[in-house]
């Protein structure tokens, strides 16, 4: 094999360039304080030397300079790069760490599938520190939500699911249940989405009518893709016991509020809800949602509801944070959106539009207000199998994301899912 | 505190080890990722190295593997050795596994940020024999000198020189074929 020094020098140059560029885009988990410094600082200072490799001396200098320039370019470009993976807001060098406890709602042993028990887990090791059961005459069959690190709210229902109440429970510093009691008035619906406002003074919920066997299928209420949907969203003020309700203005459009997790802005002024676009529906394209390499998306919007209004029309009290028409995705396929942080960020499970990423699920962070071409940051990308998402739940601060993905429970940090312990058959999770 | 840990009676204190971890972990993970052509495996290797380092109470100079005040040569050796172990473990699995020729050390999203030309270079690097890959990564990613590479890999400087030249020649040939 005959190879000129010029060829080798060019190859070495290309190699240094490729390694520098790859290092610049290779995102690493938290704990790497020099993650942004992708190229070792001493690269340009080294000399190869030696007679046999004299051609490498200028090459080394050139490669070093090229690498530094490239890394600088990449560093600038990364600020605008739509898919640049970064850690979630939680990773921003905080010293507080994730919430000390998370809760899982699982089926109580020896009971019907609708009678659950809430297990309190220590985040550090997953150990169950205590359990919460429903008061006599009630069952736990709905979601649970955290207002603070130690205060949680869950949906309790009558065994026939014709009425619900909010169960409030608090934890001690060691994860023991300090108090557990029903709060607020009785609600004549079955609660399928509950979100405690930061501080715990209000609880938002989506209620749906249920049949006597706790099923929505015998009420005529539509169920789409296995998700239960409603037509209104309500906020219960726990201090006064009053309930404000916002309703779909025109039911004839067929649009509805998804009963996916509701989420609050950190100041408690706005509530995010996911909304089926009128006329858009969740019509999937032929071929199981993917055709010609394209993924179909649902027609949906993510709305921010101003909870200071007195109730009435959802549309009148809301503004659109995100929207997409049904049909082929032309960007990411967003499946739902939730607030994180003070309300200036939308967290959205999504699918990428990359032909080779068929089995990839993404969690995106989208800065608000949404603008055309606004960059989305990939907080997590992982393999998915079919119905991948169980859900994503920010902690009350909005800085840490609890996620159920592909049957695994964990929290997202530095692009990875840090596993958390839980029983296999989960109904709900929160922290 | 500089990026290099201070020595205290021949040992690294826990705080110093933490500083070493913070200062060098990312660089070491990338080194391992390039050698293994697998970022996740690289993270595991580096994690193991630091865990072993911690278990040994930071005695870095006790086997002539570096000086206590400068743990980097030790860490380079440990990561390269860890990569070799990982490659041995992976060999049988790899025999039957699908290999992604696109850009082995990176995720799909990360690879999408690189030009096709750079992806080809990384794929060609990943296809090199282990020794040649180690030498080229230590040289062109870490920027180590010939002598440092020789010390890290436990081979002679002459072998480093010839291995680097052969590795670059193979790489150049492979890249010509992909044009």
Write the layout of secondary structure elements.
The complex is a heterodimer of chains A (431) and B (179).
Chain A lengths: L4 H21 L30 H23 L22 E7 L8 E7 L5 E5 L6 E8 L4 E7 L6 E8 L5 E11 L2 E7 L5 E7 L14 E2 L2 E4 L1 E6 L5 E5 L9 E2 L4 E2 L5 E7 L13 E2 L2 E4 L2 E7 L5 E2 H4 E7 L2 E2 L4 E2 L3 E3 L4 E7 L8 E8 L9 E7 L5 E6 L6 E5 L2 E6 L2 E4 L6 E5 L1
Parallel strand pairs in A: 13-20
Antiparallel strand pairs in A: 1-2, 1-32, 2-3, 4-5, 5-6, 6-7, 8-9, 9-12, 10-11, 11-14, 12-13, 15-16, 16-19, 17-18, 18-22, 19-21, 23-25, 24-25, 25-26, 26-27, 28-29, 29-30, 30-31
Helix pairs in contact in A: 1-2
Chain B lengths: L13 H23 L2 H17 L16 H25 L11 H5 L3 H11 L3 H11 L5 H8 L3 H22 L1
User: Which oligomeric form is depicted?
Assistant: heterodimer
How would you sum up the major sheet of chain A? 5 strands, mixed
CATH superfamily of the largest domain in chain A: TolB, C-terminal domain
Order of helices and strands of chain B: HHHHHHHH
Radius of gyration of chain B: 17 Å
- Report the principal-axis shape of chain B: globular
CATH fold assignment of the largest domain in chain A: Neuraminidase
Mean pLDDT of chain B: 73
Total domain units of chain B: 2
Q: Could you characterize the architecture of this molecule?
A:
The complex is a heterodimer of chains A (431) and B (179). Chain A has 431 residues and is mainly beta. Chain A has 2 domains: 5-79, no CATH class; 91-430, TolB, C-terminal domain (Neuraminidase, 6 Propeller), CATH 2.120.10. Helix content of chain A is 11%, strand content 40%. Chain A is built from 3 helices and 32 strands. In chain A, strands 8-9-12-13-20 form a 5-stranded mixed sheet. In chain A, strands 23, 24, 25, 26 and 27 form a 5-stranded antiparallel sheet that branches. In chain A, β8 (190-196) and β9 form a beta hairpin. In chain A, α1 (5-25) runs parallel beside α2 (56-78). Chain A is globular and about 85 Å long. By secondary structure, chain B is mostly helical. Chain B has 2 domains: 1-97; 128-179, Arc Repressor Mutant, subunit A (Orthogonal Bundle), CATH 1.10.10. Chain B is built from 8 helices and no strands. Chain B has helices at residues 14-36, 39-55, 72-96, 108-112, 116-126, 130-140, 146-153, 157-178. Residues 1-14, 58-68 and 94-102 of chain B have low confidence and may be disordered. The interface between A and B is large, with 56 and 51 residues.
């Amino acid at each position: 094999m005959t190879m000129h020094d010029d060829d080798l020098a060019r190859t070495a140059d290309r190699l240094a360039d490729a390694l520098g560029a790859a290092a610049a885009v290779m995102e690493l988990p938290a704990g790497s304080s020099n993650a942004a410094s992708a190229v070792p600082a001493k690269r340009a200072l080294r000399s190869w030397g030696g007679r046999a490799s004299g051609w490498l001396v200028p090459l080394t200098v050139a490669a070093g300079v090229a690498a530094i320039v490239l890394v600088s370019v990449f560093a600038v470009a990364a600020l605008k790069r739509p898919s640049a993976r970064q850690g979630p807001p939680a990773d921003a060098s905080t010293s507080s760490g994730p919430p000390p406890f998370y809760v899982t709602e699982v089926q109580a042993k020896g009971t019907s599938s609708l009678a659950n028990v809430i297990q309190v887990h220590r985040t550090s090791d997953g150990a169950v520190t205590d359990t919460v059961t429903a008061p006599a005459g009630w069952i736990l069959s709905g979601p649970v939500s955290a207002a603070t690190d130690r205060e949680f709210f869950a949906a309790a229902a009558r065994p026939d699911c014709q009425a619900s109440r909010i169960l409030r429970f608090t934890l001690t510093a060691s994860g023991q249940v300090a108090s557990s009691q029903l709060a607020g008035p009785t609600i004549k619906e079955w609660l399928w989405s509950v979100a405690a406002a930061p501080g715990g003074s209000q609880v938002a919920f989506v209620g749906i009518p249920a049949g006597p066997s706790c099923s929505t299928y015998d009420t005529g209420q539509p169920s789409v893709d296995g998700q239960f949907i409603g037509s209104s969203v309500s906020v219960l003020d726990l201090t006064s016991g009053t309930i404000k309700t916002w309703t779909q203005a025109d039911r004839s459009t067929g649009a509805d509020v998804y009963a996916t997790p509701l989420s609050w802005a950190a100041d408690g002024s706005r509530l995010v809800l996911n909304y089926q676009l009128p006329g858009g529906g969740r019509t999937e394209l032929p071929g199981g949602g993917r055709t010609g390499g394209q993924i179909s998306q649902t027609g949906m919007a993510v709305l921010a509801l101003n909870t200071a209004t007195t109730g009435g029309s959802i549309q009148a009290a809301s503004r659109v944070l995100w929207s997409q028409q049904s049909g082929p995705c032309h960007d990411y396929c967003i499946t739902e959106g939730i607030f994180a942080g003070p309300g200036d960020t939308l967290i959205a499970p999504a699918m990428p539009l990359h032909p080779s990423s068929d089995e990839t699920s993404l969690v995106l962070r989208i800065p608000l207000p949404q603008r055309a071409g606004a960059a989305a940051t990939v907080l997590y990308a992982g393999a998915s199998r079919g119905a991948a998402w169980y859900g994503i739940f920010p902690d009350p601060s909005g800085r840490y994301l609890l996620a159920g993905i592909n049957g695994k429970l964990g929290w997202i940090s530095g692009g990875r899912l840090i596993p958390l312990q839980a029983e296999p058959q989960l109904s709900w999770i929160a922290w | 505190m500089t990026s290099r840990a201070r020595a205290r009676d021949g040992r690294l204190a826990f705080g110093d080890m933490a500083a070493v971890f913070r200062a060098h972990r990312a660089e070491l993970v990338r080194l391992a990722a390039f050698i293994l052509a697998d970022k996740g495996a690289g993270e595991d290797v580096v994690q193991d190295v630091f865990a072993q380092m911690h278990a040994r109470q930071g005695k870095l100079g006790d086997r002539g593997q570096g000086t206590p005040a400068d743990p980097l040569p030790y860490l380079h050796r440990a990561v390269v050795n860890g990569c070799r172990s990982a490659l041995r473990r992976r060999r049988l699995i790899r025999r039957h596994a699908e290999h992604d020729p696109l850009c082995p050390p990176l995720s799909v999203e990360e690879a999408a940020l690189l030009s096709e030309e750079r992806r080809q270079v990384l794929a060609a690097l990943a296809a090199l024999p282990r020794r040649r890959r180690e030498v080229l990564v230590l040289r062109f990613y870490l920027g180590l000198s010939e002598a440092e590479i020789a010390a890290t890999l436990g081979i002679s400087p002459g072998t480093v020189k010839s291995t680097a030249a052969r590795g670059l020649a193979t790489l150049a040939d492979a890249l010509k074929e992909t044009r």
